[in-house]
Design a protein that fits this description.
By secondary structure, the chain is of the alpha+beta class. Helix content is 29%, strand content 29%.
Length: 147
């Protein structure tokens, strides 16, 4: 069951990291945001994306992983990423192709952002979402409607 909108905030991202740790993963959070600069709708979308990734890892993540969740504000965008590297003696599952991916991509694109998933060295992966802090203008240019 999804969390109510008021509870879907960047302030709750540490709870998602704790959830990953309870699943047996070595997870940590690098938060370089100033939450007061992140609009509620953007923070809620970021939380939803991260919660969805934790769900995928719980469902498909059989091996212990080293996971880093990163949040930062840069050039008018909230950058949210989750990166995995293999833990000693384990191999990471490939998370690409999950049924949640198209829904997550649609939510990000609705805000004028983009979502990228890439493999990394050592059977790892990284997912990066770029979410504009300002809504897209009617012409579809991200962040152009700020004012």
């Amino acid at each position: 069951m999804p969390n109510p909108p008021s509870s879907r905030t960047l302030a709750r991202v540490p709870e998602l990291v704790v959830r990953l740790q309870r699943l047996g993963h070595a997870a940590r959070l690098v938060d370089r945001t100033e939450r007061r600069r992140v609009p509620e709708r953007v923070g809620a979308t970021a939380f939803d994306l991260l919660e969805g990734m934790v769900d995928v890892i719980e469902r498909r993540g059989r091996a212990r992983q080293h996971l880093v969740v990163r949040l930062r504000v840069e050039d008018g965008m909230l950058i949210v990423s989750v990166q995995s590297t293999a833990a000693p003696g384990s191999q990471d599952p490939v998370l690409r192709g999950d049924p949640e991916e198209p829904r997550a991509r649609a939510r990000v694109e609705a805000l004028g952002g983009d979502l990228t998933g890439l493999p990394t060295a050592g059977h790892g992966w990284i997912w990066i979402a770029r979410l504009p802090l300002a809504p897209p203008a009617p012409d579809g240019v991200p962040g152009a409607a700020a004012g």
